[in-house]
Amino acid sequence: MRLLFVLLFAIASAFPAMAQANFETNARFAVLMDYESGTVIFQKDADARLEPASMTKLMTLAVVFNELRNGRITLDDEFFVSENAWRTGGAASGGSTMFAELNSRIRVEDLIRSVIIQSGNDAAIVLAEGIAGTEATFASMMNQLARQIGLDGSNFTNSTGLPDPDEYSTARDLADLGRYLIREFPEFYHYFSEPEMEWNGINQANRNSLIEVGIGVDGLKTGHTNAAGYGAVISTAQGDRRLVAVVHGLGSMRERAEEGRKLLTWGTRAFERFEAYAEGAVVAYADVYGGESSSVGLVGQGDIALYLPRGSRDCLSASVHYVAPLMPPVAAGQQIAELRVFCNDQLVQSAPLYAAQDVPQGDLVRRATDALKQLALGWL
Is the keyword Flavoprotein in the record (predicted)? Predict the structure, then answer.
């Protein structure tokens, strides 16, 4: 398959709106992402700030799973139910709860299951206090890990997603967080597809109703507040392909389920997969000003597979966008650019591109030559 490439210099960091590609959603915010490559198939206000509500608990779980992996806690550890956890997140709060009893002790595994299945606010607070002493300290751990993952559009102030003006995320960040959990913690992922959980004599169904509708959904998390509306981070696996979707800002649980189902079904059926670039294959080159080398190769993170509208191979073109000029040093693996794939001038997919090798600062002659070039010609 041949793509016509145009190399462009972007001077703004904002991503363009993804072409609707014959799909519309009632969700205020939406993303559909290929799990393997992270390429975006559909987006709607993907980088706008949103109130994540209980989808915040995915970040809580990311911290918990890291603590388990690093051996600082175990699934059999028991954490104490404080008055704060009981009062803020328990039955008396009126929110989602596991009905944990005040002053009781609960196994970490049961708390994890409650956070995922019941969206238990009390369970999330108990985990936060059990790991970090206070929820505020735990929120600092959440933000530290969020930065490591690359969730630059997010800030967390609590473990539950209860409303706070300083807590926010984006649909893109939530999708990337979902990918992180699936990729890094396969040993815990089975919890997300459990249909129900009983605690304290009360049985509650998984709030992600799409798990049981037969379209391969096996996670991840729903959320709702009165101000934010209804949202969900959803994943489905069919054959060798997995998609991660986010829909948010909807008016009801029923609409949330329907819009999520429509987006995943469209993404599964309306697109074909094409292997475009093998891992390490150079997609394009970006100019480096004053570097030891005048350019750096751009590669994907692993293979780059294109998901394109069925029957559309003849319509394709692509461009690579980056902020120019690049200044050394450039580090191998540094995200440099974005590949954008078009069908009949409509954007149908985007994928990040990374530096293929280090480019240190050049010697005095190289820097002087590039300076003269810029003075004479400008940076084209």
Answer: no
